[in-house]
Amino acid sequence: MAERAPLLSPDELAEKYKEFIRFYLDEDGEPIYSNALAQMIEDQRRSLEVNWVHLYNFNPEFREIAEDIIVHPTFHLEAASIALKELVNELLGDLIREERYRIYSEEDFHLRFYNIPTKASLREVTKFSIGRLIEIEGIITRVSDIYDKLLQAVYVCPEDKHDVIVLDVASGKVKPPEKCSKHDAPMKFSPELSKFVRWRTIRIQERPEDLPPGMMPEHIDGVLLDDIVDEVKPGDRVKVTGIIRIKPARRDEGRGQGPIYKRYLEIVHVEVPNRIYEKLEITPEDEEEIWRLAEREDLEDLIVKSIAPSVFGWIEVKRAIAYALFGGSTKILADGSKVRGEINILMVGDPGVAKSQLLKYAAQLAPRGLYTTGKGSTAAGLTAAVVRDSATGGWTLEAGALVLADRGVACIDEFDKMSEDDRRSIHEAMEQQTISIAKAGIVATLNARTTIIAAANPKKGRYDDYVSITENINLPPTILSRFDLVFIMKDRPSPEADSMVAEHILITRMGRNPEAKPPIDPTLLKKYIAYAKQNIDPTLTDEAARKIKEFYVEMRKKGIARDEEGGDILFETIAITPRQLEALIRLSEARARMHLRKEVTAEDAEMAIKLVNIMLEGAAHDVVSGIRDITGLMTGVSYTMVKRREIVYSLIKQLVEESEDGAVDRDVVVRLAAEKLNLRGKEYVIEDILKKLNEDGLIIFPKLDKISLIEG
Ligand code: ADP
Ligand code: MG
Question: How confident is the model at residue 275 (pLDDT cuts 50, 70, 90)?
Answer without folding.
Answer: very low
